[in-house]
Amino acid sequence: MRKQEIKQQIEIIVPLWEEILKKSIVNDEQLCKILKGKVNAQDIKKVIEKYPMNINPYYLSLIKKQDDAIWKQCIPDIREVEDDFGFDDPLHEEEDSPVYGLTHRYPDRVLLLVSNKCAMYCRFCTRKRKVGVCYKSMSKEDIQKGIEYIKQHKEVRDVILSGGDPLLLKDDELEFILKSIREIKHIEIIRIGTRVPCTLPQRITPELCAMLKKYHPLYINTHFNHPDEIRAESKRACTLLADAGIPLGNQSVLLRGINDNPAVMKKLMQKLLTIRVKPYYVYQADLTKGTNHFRTKVSEGIDIIRSLRGYTSGMCVPHFVIDAPGGGGKIPITPNYVVNKEGNSIKLKNYEDKEFEYIEPG
Predict the structure, then answer these.
(1) 125 an active-site residue?
(2) How far is the C-alpha of 196 from the C-alpha of 90, rounded, in Å?
(3) Which residue(s) pair with 102 in the sheet?
(4) What is the domain partition of the chain in residue ranges?
(5) Which of 74, 118, 209, 238 is catalytic?
(6) 315 CA to centre of own chain
(7) What's the confidence (pLDDT) of residue 108?
(8) Whole-angstrom Cα distance, residue 273 to residue 277?
């Protein structure tokens, strides 16, 4: 038997992505050994006692230098525990949760958490209170109760699977959930929120895609925040998903020192389209405790949208939204292109601030 055939047989028994995850950095000793003198062991330990760390080798390999955009997203920062501003649950997901792990905020859709584990624990995560905390994991019984709730509420037509990361479940575990939801007659679409095409693209396998395509209409929203996260591996992952007929969208978070720059955001949005991912949302960072150092001013997000519209393809322009604190839902924030309105005359300005008159029907 040839060496390549042996390697393929081993990967069938233990998938490559699981092997990568097993080598993840989860404690201060491991991190300090790799980053040698670039981090403070006591600070790292203090942070991860409250907010766990998990950095798989693939995502760590994307770091080019200390404090770059990749570093800031995955390496714990002492400010996470020193700055007490914010809320554990800024979006009041718990208050809108009729059963554990399910949020029903909007009339026709629900969010169902199916995991509290991720391939990499983002330091800005809005669910820092849950992710990686062992006693807050989702059991099969918890998920089943969520599915029963969906069955009983016929107004629900759209189910969003989230976490943690749903794609960290094994294929058969995820298929059980998808099959159970698809069997509910009033469910029209299923969406999956996942960051693995970015943080662990090896998880996207032909076998996974063959399973997912059985449950159309199925949509995936992924999460890239910086152009340096788009690599050959992530392109391959997104190609597999798109070729399986799954529409792909991207949800970025506006983050200080990472992507709060018009040129960086423009490059990110353009690169996303090259890997068949449509820019969908850019979120203003939530008021999550432990993430205040990532937050930007709203005006910066507006300026970024203004720098995109007209200067690149409209397909590159996402919605800039604030997920309103206290469970108010997503509120779109846009530059003001209407100068004034008098009668049926509307004065507008374009992306270059040139003014034009539009006449409405009388």
Answers:
(1) yes
(2) 24
(3) 99, 112
(4) 85-331
(5) 118
(6) 19
(7) 98
(8) 5
- Residue 134 among the catalytic residues: no
Residue 280 annotated to the active site: no
- Which residues have C-beta within 8 Å of that of residue 207, sequence separation ≥ 6? 171
Residue 359, number of CB atoms within 10 A of its CB: 9
- Known active-site residue 122: yes
Whether 74 is catalytic is: no
Active site residue 106: yes
Give the amino acid at 216.
Answer: H
Q: Which of 105, 182, 213, 349 is catalytic?
A: 105
> How many Å apart are CA 23 and CA 58, to the nearest integer?
10
Asked whether 128 and 289 are in contact (CB, 8 A), the reply is yes
Per-residue model confidence (pLDDT) at position 10: 43
* Catalytic-labelled residue, pool 286, 289, 295, 316: 286
* 286 given a catalytic annotation: yes
For residues 23 and 73, what is the distance between their CA atoms, to the nearest angstrom? 19
85-331 folds as TIM Barrel (3.20.20)
Average pLDDT per run of 10 along the chain, which is 362 residues long?
50 79 97 94 97 97 98 98 94 94 97 96 96 84 97 98 96 98 98 98 98 98 98 98 98 98 98 98 97 97 96 96 93 92 91 90 83
Catalytic-labelled residue, pool 125, 198, 238, 316: 125
Chain Cα centroid distance, residue 94: 19
330: annotated active-site residue: yes
The answer to whether residue 151 is catalytic is: no
Is 256 considered catalytic here? no
